[in-house]
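Hey team,

Sharing the Calcineurin-like phosphoesterase run so nobody has to redo it. Sequence (258 residues) first:
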Amino acid sequence: MKALVIPDIHLKPWIFDRASEILKEGKAERAVCLMDIPDDWGMELSVDQYRDTFDRAISFAEAYPETLWCYGNHDVSYPWGKLETGYSPYAERTVISKLDELKDSLQKKSQIAFIHRIDNVLFMHGGLTAEYVSRLNPELLDADIDEVLEAVNSASDKYLWNDESPLWYRPQYKDVEAFRKEIYTQVIGHTPVKEIYEKNGFISTDVFSTYSDGRQIGESAMISIDTEARKYEKVPVMGKLGYKVCTVTVDEEETKTC
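Structure output:
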């Protein structure tokens, strides 16, 4: 199966428009969204943008009912009452109610979780390591993979709201291999990168996040991944206004339109 990966949203509803176009073009059979739907630089007062972005996510879920959704730290920070960078007290009720509405729009409750597996690919926000699995329960190191994922997905915030959890982990900054890397590839978001890349069994995809001045950090692309062969290809994505975004270096990183 080919799965389209929708990386961190952060109040950019147009990302769902581009994902829809890619699916209509037949470049993937279903989508997996790595979420982080709310919060962005200086948007704390823009409650309408929070509402509109969640509404677009919900309409996407209804249009593509097989889509899987992976909670991000910014999503669960609201129902868990955990302060987070960009957290909006003004949009708190909106986020909590819209998250419930998103869950209610899904065919199965299991379609929204911290980790999903399709064949030989694991999808999550941050990344899963053997060290974390051992911390959760040492017996899980030799358990069936679905048993491992069930343990993670049913874990409390005590085990998930920390830097080593699949919600927060940042393998981009460490030389650590993905859990069962020889069998499963992990597709992750969470950490902004300049280009999509694979390292140590992790494929990093968060290329739509921005600097504080609104400039896009990464290339403008998503991936379509063959979940059996674990091979992926980049799919170019048009920007918010219908143009491609290219990144050029002029002294410091600067985003311009092509």
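The helical segments are 14-24, 47-63, 73-80, 92-105, 130-136, 145-153, 157-160.

Ping me if you want the raw files.
A.
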